[in-house]
Amino acid sequence: MTELSKNYEHSEIEGRLFKSWLDGAYFGRDAGGFADKDKAPYTLVIPPPNVTGVLHMGHALNNTLQDILTRRARMQGHPTRWILGTDHAGIATQNKVEQKLADEGLTRFDVGREAFVQACWEWRSKYGSTIIEQLKGMGCSCDYSDEKFTMDPGYVTAIRKVFVDWFHHDLIYKGHRIINWCPRCTTALADDEVAHADETGHLWYLRYPLVQPVGDLSYLVVATTRPETMLGDTGVAVNPADERYSALIEAGAQVRLPLMDRVIPVFADDYVSVDFGTGAVKVTPAHDPNDFDMGQRHGLEQLNVLTEGAMVNANGGRFAGMTREQAREAVVAAFEELGLLDHVEAHQHAVGHCYRCDTTIEPWLSEQWFVKMKVLAEPAIKAVRTERVVFNPRRWENVYFQWMENIRDWCISRQLWWGHRIPVFYCDACGWKDALEEDLAVCPTCGAALRQDEDVLDTWFSSQLWPFATYGWPDEPGEDTAAKELAAYYPTQVLSTARDIIFLWVARMVMSSLYFLDGEVPFEDVIIHPTVLDKHGNIMSKSRGNGIDPLELIDEYGADSMRFGLALQVTGSQDLKFDKEKVMTLARNFATKIWNASRYVTMNLEDFDQSAAIDEKTGRVAPLALTDADRWILSRLASLTAELGEGREGYEFGVIARALYSFIWNEFCDWYIEFSKGQLALGGAQRAAAQRNLVFVLDTVLRLLHPMMPFITEEIWQSIPHGDSRPSLMVAAWPQAADYASLADAEAERSVDALCAVIGAVRATQARYGISPKQPLAVVVKTTGEHAALNAELLAQQLPQLQSLVRIQSFEAAADAVKPAQSSVTIAAAVEVYVVLDGLVDFEAERDRLIKERDKKTAELAKLEKKLANEGFIAKADPVVIEKTRADAAELAAAISQIEQQLSDLD
Fold first, then answer.
1. How far apart are the first and last CA of the chain?
2. Partner of 74 for a Cys bridge, out of 80, 412, 604, 620, CB 3.0 to 4.6 A?
3. Taking all residues of the chain, what is their mean pLDDT, rounded to a whole number?
4. pLDDT tens column, 797-819
5. Buried b (16+ CB within 10 A) or exposed e, 112-136
6. DSSP classification of residue 311
7. 766-772 long-range contacts, Cβ below 8 Å, gap at least 24?
8. How far apart (Å, rounded) are the C-alpha atoms in residues 790 and 795?
């Protein structure tokens, strides 16, 4: 047994303990030799952070949850592994290296592809492990001995096999489609990589003259948010049910496109909304995905008028060479000059931005590589419907189904240099082309030199293979291959991730695993964790300046406090509003409470006979219940182990955290430790029993709390004489509810719960009326409920314990007890506690004071409620002010309720 320092200093223990865990090889599958090979394996794969990444609050939450699951499974004896690795992050890494070159006055084209890719590898080597070190600082128990990377040689083999197989099965094709194009990164983006933001813009109403008037119509008015794209218009569409334009459709009308002098058709299509603008829309097939689809249906020309840098090209006539912004101004000015600008309206609409550089996305007609998704999606939909893969919370399955059932082909090519180069080779001499798993330099048909496709694969193409490529797939299992683990340990058990990559990553992992692993799913459960918002419910972002750095939280409060504070707030129904001061102060105080309670225990063990307390079967210190308080705490401990088992299976992290907090703070620290002081003072068998129970309960709660707060629990566990021979709490046995069931004692719980209610009521009354704790009080208790009479007898037996904690002048407990005159009343579970105040309080003066205080607070509350009912205040006031007003109102309401209770006491 080692002595705990007076104060808990997280910075003095965290690094030392993490090193001891690494040295013990506890993070590997066999947990340093302590895993039970007969138990089912337990595996998670970490959502691979980008090599450019640094820890943010989303990472902190997700990795806390994963580590809770990993540590619990390891303590349960399962051969456990949390697979670690990083993603090459194509666009993000390329941007970092391009920025570095720009500082040197260079571009990637100046240095060439080979040198640029080498520079990316060097950047990864220098900076790519930053987030891994930060995960260690959090205490994450990943398998650091076998870190993976999405561009490892084995991973490259997997990527090429997938591409080649799908290519040869006609699931991958190259075609012209409208894609999301980033002019800054000069690459295509998937729909899911586009961040949409509401912006205030304009709706320009432009007049398009009819080639031949139809009835009273000599022109059509079309509404557009992007007048510069009219340079590429090849049609005007209306809804076939729109009677305003039926004559035009019957007449086969055409318009002459202003500025371009191009004759284009007017046609009907169900896609057009009658209610948008004038009901007539310009159609630009090369610059809008919906227009592209209409153009396909009606055989319209696809006229691209922008370059890859979003400059107007030669198809834009006299506007060629302008940026898209310059062209917009010039086109609007030209329409106005010609008298064809009908009018302009302010317009709020969602605009897509590159998720990496925030440049406005350009819908752009381009030749790209695509994967046919419908055939892959069907078995993946079935896997979730048949519960082979289960989402937690279950509501996210609906989001999954909605996307999968309306899935579009996936654009997988990116115009980058850093990443997995598309393994398609071309012979310009004879036209030969094929996808290959191995590089080939010479054409197998004519012997000419081959060239490889210039594009690289979307980063998510490689990430979709993460659960099985990290096992060495597609290698066949052998004596010395990583793939033998695949045969033994696949699928994984749980994936924890964010909602915004259900489509980008989760769905694609399910699809690819089912396809390549003989119909096997990649994981059994998917946890969609809540989003971490600021305390006002806003998304954290650099632009808002409301972000919280988890590294700063760890430095100030400790990793355990951050982990517990995050887990405490997790629910399955809503996002997490993170109030740093409130949450972290609570978590740090909890850590301090545990530390101080543990010091109390260790300071009272100088004469503890451990050998006499050891259970031969478990090898641990066993409890010994001699008092109702002993039986009560052991029964409550049995309930806790049962509750945590149930909660953990349902991934109810907040439920678990709150249960641990309540038991440790309230029942163990505030009550049992208080009860134990008198028992320890008695000496002999009573002292020995109290010592055993304190050690046993503390040992158990440290095990239960360890997955959430690994550092402080390990440090304390190493200092108490628990009797366990295992070298670390990390590999100590998890408390099983069945082993504690015999400790359940409903009678002891009723008895001591009532005692605690009485003590709490007496202390609250003393505080409420300013009565000295030294003043003896007359107390009457009315027991209620099914066991009222028995509870009264049990409570009467607790009088010595009651008298040791509060000063009692007289005490009565009965099922038919009557409230004495001039007494306070406190109602708790199964008891009503009356404390006589006669002679201790000036009732008239106290009543007058309370009425004045109530009236004052009621008036203040009315003002706040009036303000909160004002829609203008809610709409215009700063969210911080609104939140404070609501908090002040709630505080006043609670104070008024308390005053009303005090007034009723005085009646």
1. 57
2. 80
3. 92
4. 989 999 989 999 999 999 999 98
5. eeeebbebbeebbeeebeebbebbb
6. B
7. 768/824, 768/902, 769/824, 769/837, 769/840, 769/841, 769/846, 771/840, 771/841
8. 9
